Amino acid sequence: MDPWSIRQTGFYQKFDTNSRNSSSIIIEPSDVLRGRLGEVFGEGSSQAIRSDYPTHWTTFPLLCLSAVGGNWREYIRFLGIGIENIHTIFRFEQLGEKGTSRFTEVTFADLKRLEYFMDTGLRVAHVLNLNIEVMKAIQHDAERIRALEEKEANSERYTILAQAIDSKIREHNFLRKHIQSLCNRAERTSGMIRDAIALRDSATMKELARLANIETAQVHNLTEKTVKDTKAMKVLTFMAVIYLPASFTASFFGMDYVTVRTHAGGRISVHATENLWLYIAITAPLMVLTLGACFCGNF
Predict the structure, then answer these.
(1) Angle, vertex CA 204, rays to CA 201 and CA 210, nearest 5
(2) CA–CA gap between residue 70 and residue 29 (Å, rounded)
(3) How many angstroms separate the CA atoms of 182 and 57, rounded?
(4) Which long-range contacts (CB under 8 A, 24 or more apart) does 87-92 make?
(5) Are 157 and 143 in contact (CB under 8 A)?
(6) What phi, psi does 43 have (nearest 5°)?
(7) pLDDT tens digits for range 15-33
(8) Of the candidates 62, 288, 87, the residue with the CA atom closest to the CA atom of residue 187
(9) 247 CB burial (10 A radius; 0-12, 13-18, 19+)
(10) Gap between the Cα atoms of 41 and 44, Å rounded
């Protein structure tokens, strides 16, 4: 992810014009500013360079200004490379073909990274604006102090400070425009990626709809077959209902429980044997049990 971090450096200075003593406090200095301080006040610095800083209050702000923006170019370059890499992936996706090694799809992870770069770019632009406002405030205070100071010999020092502040403001304005252009490009790329993902999802939904239509057609065919089978079962059931009484009558009279005799003159007599009660005793409970099982199965 992002190996960089944006930090704020606090600077306080008190300069006594009578004794020419300067007291300064720096809170969380950057690595560049630490290097500058080491060059001036470190063990390897010369006495001439070290003795020049207490002579006027503008010397120490000039030292701090020299360290402002030392890493901004590298950081903005890092953001630009990240945005360009995602844009390149998206461009190759449009040129590549599915099923080939050249094809690489942008994902929501790339979109999330791009939004991170956009948010960071907006934060960088905000910090640059704050730096410009702080430097303008320093320039305004320097002009006010210059008007109160009687010594004309220090006029050159104020001029050098004003020139340094103007140079840093121009540099910050250039960096601000650069980061703004990167944010605009990232925003355009984000919009194109969102559209591409939406189109890809639309194609996927169309494919799913096509498969769903095929499955629906198969279910419809199966339903039609089921309806045909149901109709056939109805026909068979109707035929069974027609033949069931005749079958029952033939089976019943074929048993030894009932005897049909034909007498002279065409008279017919039906005689039941003494064991007919056994047939009724077995058949009636079985019929009740069968009807009960059917009733319980349906409900």
Answers:
(1) 145
(2) 12
(3) 39
(4) 87/185, 87/189, 90/189, 90/192, 90/193, 90/196
(5) no
(6) -70, -30
(7) 776 766 777 788 888 777 8
(8) 87
(9) exposed
(10) 8
Which pLDDT band holds residue 246 (cuts at 50, 70, 90)?
A: low
Q: Whole-structure pTM over 0.90, yes or no?
A: no
The token duo for 78 is 């890092």
Token look-up 């120490």 returns 60
Report residue 84 as tokens: 């360009």
Pairing of strands 21-27, 258-262: unpaired
C-alpha span between 163 and 61 (Å, rounded): 13
Pairing of strands 268-272, 258-262: antiparallel
DSSP character for 101? T
CB of 238 closer than 8 Å to CB of 246: no
**Do 169 and 132 touch, CB atoms closer than 8 A?**
yes
DSSP state of 266: S
